[in-house]
Amino acid sequence: MGAVIQIRERIPNKRALFDIGIGGPIASLILSMILWIIGISLSELVPLNQQSNLESVTFFGESAFTYLSNQFYFGGFDSSQMDVNIHPFARAAWVGLLITAINLLPFGQLDGGHIIYSIFGESYRKWIYWLYIAFLFLALVNFTWLIWGFIIFYFIKIEHPYIPDHKDGIGNIRKFLGLGILLSLLIIFVPKPIMIGSQLNQPSLLEYIWNQIQFF
After folding, report:
1. Which site among 52, 127, 176, 182 is 20 to 30 Å from 134 CA-CA?
2. Other C-beta atoms within 10 Å of 196: how many?
3. CA dihedral sign of residues 109, 113, 115, 118
4. Are the C-beta atoms of residues 37 and 72 closer than 8 Å to each other?
5. Within 13 Å of residue 30, how many CA atoms lie on the same side as its CB?
6. Residues paired with residue 46 on neighbouring β-strands, in sequence order
7. How far is CA 191 from the centre of its chain?
């Protein structure tokens, strides 16, 4: 599924770096999506009020991909009244997609960091910290992302270490492929990964701030 890559041998150039970074996310994305589709076909739609002891039930957050695929397969439903009781295959796929999404974050030694640095080179250092700050704002939606921000800053690092250019660059095909896999992050990213039933009606920090603004 990809990971924070530690390689003992020196990477010769950005083309080699790109090839190292792209393989894991592509394989993980394809396999997880296929497994999700299989799992959803084996899942069932149930009313929320039929969930016993709702406050102790674990709810898996939705990405654009999982939400749209659920709505398509089950013919459209009100997620405030109904929920998908997902098959273990779909649950495993959900974990795979979440790991892939985290791994595609464009920072440091994550595969997303390898890919974005290979595409944009040294110029990306001018704006990568702004992208990191934007990422931290996700903590307004779910506190989990502030923890990940800490992990990235202190352990994974924000910037990628210097790697020399290949004499012919990485090529347009690699650029398009890299941008495509990075954009896939938008459809598989889960803003609120896991919630317990008792948390469902609790507003996020962003919702709380918005409610206070409306109050005034």
Report:
1. 176
2. 13
3. negative
4. no
5. 5
6. 83
7. 8
CB 90 within 8 A of CB 82: no
Is residue 209 over pLDDT 70? no
Nearest to 185 by CA among 43, 8, 26: 26
Q: Where are the alpha helices (DSSP H) in 49-200?
A: 64-73, 88-103, 111-120, 128-136, 144-151, 172-183, 185-188
Report how far residue 195's alpha carbon sits from residue 216's, in angstroms, rounded to the nearest whole number: 30
pLDDT more than 90, % of the chain: 64
Q: Which residues contact 47 (CB under 8 A, 6 or more apart)?
A: 81, 82, 83
| Cα distance between residue 14 and residue 169, in whole Å | 8
For every residue of 47-90, DSSP letters joined together read EGGGSTTGGG-EEE---HHHHHHHHHHTT---TTTEEEE--HHH
pLDDT mean over 72-91: 87
Maximum CA extent, the chain: 62
CB 186 within 8 Å of CB 63: no
User: Distance between CA 128 and CA 206 in Å, rounded?
Assistant: 24
Residues 6+ apart with CB under 8 A from 175: 119
Which pTM was predicted? 0.85
Residue 92 · residue 31 · CB < 8 Å: no
Encode pLDDT of 121-152 as tens digits: 999 999 999 999 999 999 888 888 999 999 99
Q: Tell me 64's DSSP state.
A: H
Supply the Cα-derived Rg of the chain in whole angstroms.
20
The domain segmentation of the chain, as residue ranges, is 14-215
